[in-house]
Amino acid sequence: MVLTRLFLILAKGLSLAAASLSLSSYVVHESRRSISTRWTPVRRAEHGVLLPLRIGLKQENLHSLEEYLLDVSHPNSPNYGKHWASTKVAETFRPSSVALGIVRAWLVDSGLESSRIELSSTGGWLHATVSVSEAESLLATEYYVYQSSEEDVEYLACKGAYHLPEHVSKHVDIVTPTLHFDAKMKRRTSPEFVGRGGQPGTSSRSHGPKVVGPIEDVSVSTELEDCNNQITLPCLRALYKFEYAPIASDKNSLGIAEYTPQAYIPSDLDQFFQNYSKSLVGERPVMVSIDGGTINNNETDKAFFEESNLDLQYSMGLVGKGQPVTLYQVGDLIINGTFNNFLDALDGSYCTFEGGDNRAFDSTYPDPAPGGFKGPTQCGGAPLPYIISTSYVHDETDLTPAYMQRQCAEYAKLGLMGVTVLYASGDGGVAGNDGRCLTDDGQAAEGAPRFMPGFPAECPYVTGVGATQVNPGAKVTDPESACEQGIFSGGGWSNVFAMPDYQKEAVQTYLEKYPPPYPADIWNSTGQSRAFPDIAVNGANYLIVVQGKVFRVSGTSASSPVLAAILSAVNDARLAVGKSPIGFINPTIYSAAFEGVLNDITNGSNPGCGTNGFAAQPGWDPVTGLGTPNFPKMLSRWLELP
Ligand SMILES: *[C@@H]1O[C@H](CO)[C@@H](O)[C@H](O)[C@H]1NC(C)=O
Ligand SMILES: *[C@@H]1O[C@H](CO)[C@@H](O)[C@H](O)[C@H]1NC(C)=O
Ligand SMILES: *[C@@H]1O[C@H](CO)[C@@H](O)[C@H](O)[C@H]1NC(C)=O
Ligand SMILES: *[C@@H]1O[C@H](CO)[C@@H](O)[C@H](O)[C@H]1NC(C)=O
Ligand SMILES: *[C@@H]1O[C@H](CO)[C@@H](O)[C@H](O)[C@H]1NC(C)=O
């Protein structure tokens, strides 16, 4: 134990760590798999700088999460549809007092007075304000100040890895701030905003749906003949045989998540509805403001409004006047918000789960800046909808595996509670945002050779939604292909998440019948990792109104809210006959009960990283998943389930 390199690092530090070393040897607790080239360590952190050290304790029963989820989501399970109350979820996963005792004892033995150690109210994490040198000793690591090439903030983070005594490591999930760019130093002033590490992809201008326009050749009357050029509400209704009048809207709910500074423009909704869904003129989404989320229409750049306008014009337009759509507007105008900020508001137990959020990826309130949100970070209290659609995507390398696994577990918990979580699968084909791919050593770079999966669609407890198109010159009744309109459906195999049981057969069939023609190291060819997307919906040439003008947009950004609207109608019909909402749909759509229900997409591909990507083929494929909706068939199958 004493002769390790680790000991040498410790010996240079304080005496703090020596005591813990006598208890058990240190092990690597978490290490950086890769770091985006945009982060550069500029200097060692000053020893006296104070850090909000947070230690997330391991939850009980987490290893059974998938089993519990399948129990309520698999159509063959006797408990199908018997979703859990949030209190049952919180109780089932609460960390044990044994874990708490061991971690606390380690901190005290290491020389931290117990008066400095705070326990969160739910017992999920321990918190202490420590100096950089104390943290370096406790975690056997070195802190550096990092600068990003893309944003105006400095972060404090460990280099490479951090360590914990073996007997402590077993009971800890995550320690922050460590590897995840948690501790923000100061804001440099810079006019060019691009978006910070933890902010969902589309917050940066280039990651929204691909937009063409303004366009002049818009015809409202002949739109069904024109669906190959421009998708409108009637095209989508025709494509997916989607006609439905809500009957249980008082029981039903549908949520769209948007991240400030993105916002929608109310008058644009009316101009859109005027042409395509007159009865909706004057209707607005029901806004739930999270962490100071606000509808700011003062920006002049249309990029601020494309995503929200698209999502709301199409989800509201399709569900119709009877069914309110809830808009979750996340984050204030200064530090904005992230997926985790949203999840905290939906499920208060997530705020402290595994040590809580990552303080730099995720926004922490109150925000002291002028105009910033002055309340605390919202924990719980936001209404839980039955369906949530999110059209934002991260590259897998934007985040650490631990960060993604923590968030992914939360999606499983939402599924346990009966929520359907939909995420756009990304618009770069097998590449990530802005065409970034993986280098041989796991960095993100343009022109790199390896495929870049997108998160959260690669989380096995999320339904990843890819994009299709009506082929050029084709009719709305012709089979669709994978979308190839300047955007390509995100898809492939995760490098972080293992393959869930529900998709094994479908994915194995693809791998055996249509083996991808690529060297085994440019994609995750193990056959053991999560494959996505799960399903697809048209994502090509949507007409939207932004700032009073008509544009054509393409992207999985469009596909996800449209699927949400269609699934919401299924929920409506089930709720109307006293059944549960459909919840986590993946085990159902991959099951024998759903054979032949979706329209199989067998043409097109998702190029990226200098390749043709994967090919759509009969059955599941990593471009369009199992295919596109056929609403009447989906409805009848889901009504047959208990
Ligand atoms: C809607 O109709 C107006 C005229 O009533 C027209 O100027 C506008 O381009 C139309 N928008 C769309 C999206 O078709
Ligand atoms: C937008 O501008 C108006 C008028 O200048 C101002 O009153 C309002 O506070 C601004 N809204 C936001 C969200 O900044
Ligand atoms: C939040 O959005 C605003 C408006 O675009 C931007 O100026 C700011 O830099 C963003 N903040 C962060 C922390 O990304
Ligand atoms: C492939 O995915 C698995 C997760 O299922 C992961 O453990 C493995 O490291 C990945 N391979 C590469 C080369 O990233
Ligand atoms: C396949 O898609 C391409 C467009 O991407 C289209 O030109 C072609 O006609 C399609 N073929 C079939 C059989 O649908």
UniProtKB/TrEMBL annotation:
Active-site residue list: 307 (charge relay system), 311 (charge relay system), 557 (charge relay system)
Main localization (coarse): secreted
GO molecular function: metal ion binding; serine-type endopeptidase activity; tripeptidyl-peptidase activity
Cofactor: Ca(2+)
A cellular component term, taken from the record's GO annotations: extracellular region
PANTHER family referenced in this protein's UniProt entry, alphabetically: PROTEASE S8 TRIPEPTIDYL PEPTIDASE I CLN2, SERINE PROTEASE AORO, PUTATIVE (AFU_ORTHOLOGUE AFUA_6G10250)-RELATED
The protein's name: tripeptidyl-peptidase II
Native species: Obba rivulosa
High-level lineage: Eukaryota, Fungi, Dikarya, Basidiomycota, Agaricomycotina
